[in-house]
Amino acid sequence: MNLKKVKISEQSPNERVKNFSEVCLGYNEDEAILEANRCLECGKCIAGCPVEINIPKFIHLIKEKKFLESVNVIKETNSLPGICGRVCPQEVQCEAKCPLGIRGESVAIGKLERFVSDYERKIGVKNIVKEKDKDIKIAVIGSGPAGLTCASELAKKGFKVTIFESLHKPGGVLMYGIPEFRLPRDILEYEIDYIKRLGVEIKTNILIGKTLTLKDLKDEGFRAIFIASGAGLPSFMNIKGENLNGIFSANEFLTRNNLMQAYKFPEGADTPIKVKSPVIVVGAGNVAMDSARVARRLKAEKVTIVYRRTENEMPARKEEIEHAKEEGIEFMLLTLPVEFIGNSEGWVEKTKCIKMELGEPDASGRRSPVPIKDSEFLIDSKTVIIAIGQKPNPLIPLSFPELKLTKKGTIWVDENMMTSVEGVFAGGDIVSGAATVILAMGMARKAAKGIIEYLEKSGK
Amino acid sequence: MNTIIEKKEIAPKIFRYKIESNYICRNYKPGEFVIVVPKENGERIPLTIFNCEDGFIEIIFQVVGYSTKVLSEMGVGDKIEAILGPLGLPAEIEYFGKVVCVGGGVGTAVIYPEIKSLKEKKNEIYTIIGARTKELVILEEEIKKFSDKLFITTDDGSYGEKGVVTEPLKRILENEKVDRVIAIGPIIMMKKVSELTKKYNVKTIVSLNPIMVDGTGMCGACRVEVDNKTYFACVNGPEFDGHKVNFDLLMKRNLQFQDLEKLKI
To answer: What's the gap in Å between the CA of A339 and the closest CA on chain B?
Structure first.
């Protein structure tokens, strides 16, 4: 038994900082089988998967070279295997439960998931399995991971599902937030296409709460509604100078680059993006790593992550932190920006920071940072990207005051994911606050079950 | 959906489009706007809804940069890539008494639906239209219908009185009791109007036009400072109290991508 994972090939750091192609190149068939053969098929990993994929079964089929059968096992509970294989934090989920991880490295479950989904996509198999059509309309608000998942689960059961998306392209955070070097667009488009083939209609450019209200949807005959509008409201630091030019929310920076394709400006896209070196990125989650790595690819020579705690507390995936380091991103830890200082034209020039030290653990269990008195200092910063988190988008709750909210501004739901309004369900970041793709998907699956039970109980 | 069904150049480089649209009118209120993506891979640009009826919307826009140029080059029968709306908070439309509406340049088109709605609420409406020169004065006939008095100024004196909108506004404020001023146009005009009305202590509403990306409160590109607090113009605006807006910041922020925009033209 090999205690180490089969090594996976990646673009070299020097090469990849010059392009937006995927960093990880994936296993080939032999490598995938070799890695699959390490699996003991004990099944402990399933408990770590928010969408309960039958992991030992799909890995067993890889061992037998039955790759298409393998991907179909995944798709029984997860319609987005190519996406999840790439962006799920497996190291704290399925792979964390793998007994091989005790003495060596756990099975590379995510990379195997990715392998079989890529295999299917390359072969071009377009089969779908779904139940007979039912004449019941269900509306899903938002086409991010939660919306796509809930829609696909319901479509498989034969319901007529319409997704309403406010942006001009579907995918939600998968489209505007996650850069193409982590999640290539053709993979996203392929998996969205699969959901469309299941019979789901996606209507873009409709903002529920403004273009149409929840009441309009009920009037149009939607029997149940699933709200998955995400955590799209960027947090700012609310410190002096934050509205200077050159200071962006991570959402703006990434939306320009990913959704609007600004890295192709001016030839291939009309939306510009501006990166003047040195760049600082405030925050240390996945969004911060993504922003820093995008800035690097946009030719910023010096990019620094500024974080108020230490590396141990960073919320980003280990893999993302490692990739960022390999790409030359610098880390300035135990440091908190307190003011941005600009020039006469209103552009940011410097950031005043204060040194921090770790104090007592806070509610999240992480030791909370405390400022060190009189330790202020200045750093050069011609571009600042604020990546300190996103809050739930308030548009839908504002337009529909009947929805009960929690203190955090998220939508309150019961154990079946139903909101305080009958027939209206919610899931994903609008319920949990900003979390991961897979947790949103887990909630969406639960909501789909809740919706089906609700419809059965209410008579049709 | 989104097909251009009528196109008119109502003044040099100012276009009026009638566009087929199924949903936008359903919940539209004056003061709200749309985000338009002219073509694939295009920018998302905010434009005001000039008129909204069942089955279509009308927009009036001026060619000011690359994306509005692309839009202006489209023709009847062409399909616009994407239109999202209505967005923003609606204008406050109620009975105030005597309202002076100031429209500068293409801002005149933005203020028009508000003039119409304010008149329906029985307000007494004085309108001031300002333009650089005679041929850029737009919507005079339409606005006349809903205005009790109409003043026109041109920078070069080719039509109406020579000068800027603050001159007739000042005369009105000197001589009459005004209950509210609404000013929509270039930032500098809104700033000057707000400075003037502040002296007379007349509540003044302006409609801000910062750079936007999504238009739904997701990115913060459109942050503006009002009363020293930050707001997103797309969801908290676009209309704000002119006496509290930091116009200088808005002017600077709107120049943020100027050098890059030149690469497209």
So the answer is: 15
Yes or no: say if A393 and A399 are a contact pair by the CB < 8 Å rule: no
- Taking one residue from A and the other from B, the number of pairs with CB-CB distance under 8 angstroms is 120
The answer to whether the CB of A430 falls within 8 A of the CB of A410 is yes
All CATH 3.50.50.60 domain ranges in chain A, comma separated? 137-232+392-458, 235-389
The percent of residues above 90 in pLDDT, for chain A, comes to 88
What gap in Å lies between CA B190 and CA B193, rounded to an integer? 5
Specify the CATH number of the domain A235-389. 3.50.50.60
Q: Do A71 and A58 contact (CB within 8 A), yes or no?
A: yes
Q: What is the pLDDT of residue A434?
A: 82
The lowest-confidence range among A146-150, A363-367, B4-8, B131-135 is A363-367
Q: Is A382 on the interface with B (CB under 8 A)?
A: no
Best mutation target among A216, A271, A275 (most B Cβ atoms within 10 Å) is A271
Residue A460: pLDDT above 70? no
Options 2.40.170.20, 2.40.30.10, 3.40.50.720, 3.40.50.300; CATH of B4-87: 2.40.30.10
Q: How far apart are CA A22 and CA A184, in angstroms?
A: 6
| CA closest to A272 among chain B residues | B260
- The mean pLDDT of A340-350, rounded to a whole number, is 96
**Start-end of CATH 1.10.1060.10 domains in chain A:** 9-123
Domain B98-254 sits in CATH at 3.40.50.80
At A303, is the pLDDT very low, low, confident or very high (cuts 50, 70, 90)? very high
Cα separation, B178 vs B112, whole angstroms: 19
Residue that is written with structure tokens 């704000």 in the block: B240
The pLDDT value given to residue A362 = 82
Q: Look at A211 and B66 and tell me if their CB atoms are within 8 Å.
A: no
Interface of B with A (CB under 8 A): 23-24, 26-27, 37, 41-44, 66-67, 70, 81-87, 213-214, 216-221, 223, 225, 230, 235, 249, 252-253, 255-257, 260-261, 263-264
A30-69 pLDDT tens trace: 999 999 999 999 999 999 999 999 999 999 999 999 999 9
Q: Which residues contact A30 (CB under 8 A, 6 or more apart)?
A: none
Mean pLDDT over the full length of chain B: 95
Q: Is A274 on the interface with B (CB under 8 A)?
A: yes
Say if CB A77 and CB A53 are below 8 A apart. yes
pLDDT on residue B163: 94
Q: Residue B143 is which amino acid?
A: I
Query: Domain extents for chain B?
Result: 4-87, 98-254
Task: Classify strands B180-184 and B56-62 as parallel, antiparallel or unpaired.
Answer: unpaired
CA distance A409 to chain B (A): 15
Share of chain B above pLDDT 70, in %: 100
Q: Give A208 to chain B, closest Cα distance, Å.
A: 10
Per-residue confidence at A270, pLDDT binned at 50, 70, 90? very high
Residue B29: band (very low, low, confident or very high) from pLDDT cuts 50, 70, 90: very high
Cα–Cα nearest to A148, from A121, A114, A174: A174
Q: What is the pTM of this model?
A: 0.94
Kind of pairing, strands A383-386 and A247-249?
Answer: parallel
Query: pLDDT digit string (tens) for A187-233?
Result: 999 999 999 999 999 999 999 999 999 999 999 999 999 999 999 89
Class of domain A9-123: mainly alpha
Report whether CATH 3.50.50.60 matches the domain A137-232+392-458: yes
Within 8 A of B216 by CB-CB distance, chain A residues are 166, 207, 210, 232, 393, 395
* pLDDT value of residue A128: 83
The residue to which tokens 């392998």 are assigned: A115
| Contact predicate A306/A340, CB 8 Å | no
The alpha-carbon gap from B20 to the nearest alpha carbon of chain A, in Å, equals 14
